[in-house]
Design brief:
Helix content is 33%, strand content 22%. By secondary structure, it is α+β, with helices and mostly antiparallel strands. The protein folds into two domains: 135 residues, Sandwich (Jelly Rolls); 79 residues, Arc Repressor Mutant, subunit A. Strand 11 and strand 12 form a beta hairpin. Helix 1 crosses helix 2. The longest helix has 27 residues.
Length: 248
């Protein structure tokens, strides 16, 4: 059974973090972040929080992927997001006292644990911290709007291609290899997120693989033709191709 991991893990220094440049705590050069955040290491199935738990912290992913879900009145779990390096988990609880969703690690992951009260005090006392958090919430809103638009407008093939492009672009923004995608989520979890049947997701992965657009090996996907993947998603982007190799 998945467990809730202990909050008392290792302290972490902001200077050692690759995403500290846009972290609301990173400007504290005096303490270098020590005492404000902790690094928590998770294993697949470890739970950060459940829906209804009292908010005590927000989390920023450093490595790995964390899944968020909501359960409907019928108890069926709906995947609402996959959060990778540099992304915040728990932002939807900022205006309340309890988490609205459940967050679970999909693989070995590490997250910075930022105490809720510390974050509130930093936001209220620092214009830079406030701007950073507004930017993070704006990006989250933009991502949500993009997936809602895709669900309303795109066919199944376009949804899956757009999903892969989105993960690649988020890895690119985090300075990671954007052509090599580790997808620890199951085909069922991807299907839930994209509102598709599991069989449809599996069939579309096979189609992309056979077309030479991606290479699929279990839960690893290599993007081999970024332009073709963009066309499959219905995107005629003029952006430069994603660069391979970690830039950390």
């Amino acid at each position: 059974m998945p467990c809730v991991v202990s909050i008392a893990d290792n302290t972490t220094r902001c200077a050692a973090c690759r995403v500290a440049v846009d972290c609301p705590l990173s400007e504290d050069s005096a303490s270098d972040g020590v005492g404000h955040s902790r690094l928590r290491v998770l294993h697949a199935g470890d739970r950060l929080f459940r829906a209804g738990d009292r908010v005590d912290a927000l989390y920023r992913v450093r490595t790995g992927i964390v899944k968020t879900t909501l359960s409907g009145p019928d108890g069926v779990e709906q995947v609402t997001g996959f959060h990778g390096a540099g992304e915040w988990v728990g932002l939807d609880a900022l205006d309340g006292e309890h988490y609205r969703s459940e967050a679970v690690a999909l693989d070995t992951a590490s997250v910075c644990v930022v105490p809720y009260q510390v974050l509130r005090e930093r936001i209220s006392g620092s214009s830079r911290a406030a701007r950073v958090m507004v930017a993070a919430m704006s990006q989250r809103l933009a991502n949500k709007e993009a997936i809602h638009l895709s669900l309303a407008r795109d066919n199944a093939a376009q949804r899956l291609a757009a999903f892969l492009l989105d993960i690649a672009q988020r890895r690119d923004a985090a300075g990671l290899d954007a052509t090599q995608l580790a997808l620890p989520m199951s085909r069922g979890e991807i299907a839930s997120y994209l509102a598709l049947a599991v069989e449809t997701v599996s069939r579309l992965f096979t189609r992309l693989h056979r077309a030479g657009i991606v290479r699929v090996h279990r839960n690893h996907v290599e993007i081999r033709d970024h332009a073709a993947l963009a066309r499959s998603a219905g995107r005629m982007s003029t952006a430069a191709p994603l660069r391979a190799g970690s830039r950390a």
